[in-house]
Amino acid sequence: MNKIYSLTVCGVLMSLSLSVTASERSYRFEKTISRKVLENYLSRAATLMDLCTGQGNVEDNIRMVIETGTKFAGRTLYLWGGESQLEARMARAKEIAARIHRLDPDLVLQAGIFEIVTEEANGVAVPDWVFREFKLPVEQRNFRYQAMLFDEGLYHNHWSAGASVPDMSKLETRMWFYYLAARYIDAGMEAIHFGQVALIGAKDPGFSHWWDMLTRTRRYARQKARRHLLICDAHTPDGGPKHGDRLLFDFHSFPLRIKEIADAPHKGVLEVGYLDSIFGRSKGGIAPSGWKCDHLPYLVELDNYGISDRPGQPGASYYTFGYDEITWFAHQPESYRNEWLRYAWQWVREHDKNGYLQMPGSRCLSAPINGQSWYYANTRSAACPQGFGQEKAIKAIWSETP
Known about the structure:
The chain is an alpha/beta fold. It has ten helices and 20 strands. The strands form seven sheets. A seven-stranded mixed sheet has the order 9-8-5-4-3-19-20. The protein has a three-stranded parallel sheet with strand order 12-17-18, with helices on one face. A two-stranded antiparallel ribbon has the order 1-2. A hairpin with a 2-residue loop joins strand 19 and strand 20.
């Protein structure tokens, strides 16, 4: 059947027709999600950083999401510090999420809760319902930054002065993560990426405190989420944390870990076993929806984390010619970017059937290109003159995949 989507871009009403056979791919879930449906989403996943907080041209970004057939939009809403901006970001996100879901009710929007908390959290009030969830006396107070931190100065000011890694073994941290997750669910998010689980859980042997927080968050989602389910993931360098035989997350995720080609300047490849790449290492167990697996499905993404002290030059571990992954990618010619996405998609599927490439849709850059510090996959146009032009390549790759 054909699904017709309409949206207004720059004052012009547009209709997009996507040809979909209902029996081919299901995106239906309620309270639990089967492995098949989950993998259908992962096979149409794209990073769309800040999609729901208004980054770039919102109308053209929404058009691109619908046009490509994206079904899982990653990192659309999050805080990286700046907790005082929460209310403004939430109001914008709720409005944009509602618009997207009117166009495609099946599309999953993902938020992020990361390995950072700053002193600005001291200005956020703890609502009554958070105290009640944790069976604490209700009082009038704000969240306490210091109460979320590791003992003995571990990871204090890790990101900058007044910006630290929160400790999941601290009750205040679990309250904070639960609060943010609930707010994101209320805004229309159906998935949350939880950042560097091992870093936040450095003092949480057996991940019992992670398990507690996730259990509470999933219980909230069962009551409040659009389809009464929250799809959770995190970066899992050890292949995936478990609580006994139960997996913490619905799927795993990790950076691609792109290896430099020494005799081909600025070219990169993927390789099983390179650095701490996840290929072949995703752990199995009992998934949160109850099904068992030998290896949990996972996404690999073009990550952002900075540049080396020699940008553009080879030899720095965890960098590709001195850049993080998305910045390296954005610095390549358009033809190579399109070629590389097809290569990476096929390579991942051929080398580990449990893995899927998360396409780059929108992401910050660690080194500007012609003064631009943001990557957009959008086709260049008057609406998005800063587009890098991978939109058609992404749609083509997906259209060729059953």
